[in-house]
Structure prediction request, 311 residues.
Amino acid sequence: MTAEEMAGLLTPAAAADALADALRAGVDPEGCPSRTALDVPGGQLLLMPAATGAYAGVKIAGVAPGNARRGLPRITGSYLLLDGPTLRPLALLDGAALTTLRTPAVSALALRHLAPAGPPPRLVLFGSGPQAYGHLEAVAAVREPAEVVVVARKAPGAARLTARAREMGFEARTGTAADVAGADLVVCCTTAREPLFDGRLVGPGATVVAVGSHEPDARETDTALVRRAAVYVESRAAALREAGDLLVPEAEGAVGPGHISGTLADLVAGRLPVGGPPNCPQLFKSVGMAWEDLAVAVALFRAAGGDNSET
Prediction:
């Protein structure tokens, strides 16, 4: 299934529903196989397998930082969806397109619980790549913003994303990292390896989502924010293995592993209060997990008319 064939089959909201359904059906993110990463001449090769009773799947993704200067996507790959009982191949999906849908859907699911109904929020969006576009759509599906402020390293990219936000009917402009001071939502989807903004500027009622890295020494948010915030993750095990946003402050002695307030499964199951504690920012740190790819791949397969009931 190509990216073009996948486009329009599933909205970010429907993909978020698929993730929530998987958690309610008993998927345990803590037991999800860890990501295998292999350094190769062009960058990194990632292998992400997962299985449920009815389906299994594996994503093979490439992260090639040098592709930008070649005019090629930074993220490449394919997703092989299999029938669970027989392991018969059912579909081959564009892996980059799947990731571009899956990651914003994870963020949207978290925001349903951490940033529920209220006045239209002011959104500060860091980045101007495919994930930034996906997150703009996903955030809008949860809370239509009163204003979108785009902060990006390259001015042309920031201008294009700002124009897209205006096409969607939102007030939008480009901005700087200092704009987080007045933000209700801050979404970080960049390739940055160092903090993007001063966490002391983030208001106590704001929600921050960081999705850009899955390496222990890379982060988009700083120690000041992590120390102040109620922190939520997809899985404690995955976060404490891969989330530099949390591991760097821990290495500095600013926080401990117990600083994590809860997980996505806790939020979906209602084990945590909607909106989180009122006196501090809420931070959702995502690293991306194989169970999420499988849940969204199955939803795409079914939306395209696929059926494995005969196996």
About this structure: The chain has a mean pLDDT of 92. Residues 95-114 form the longest helix (20 residues). The chain is about 35% helix and 25% strand. The CA atoms of residues 100 and 131 lie 6 Å apart.
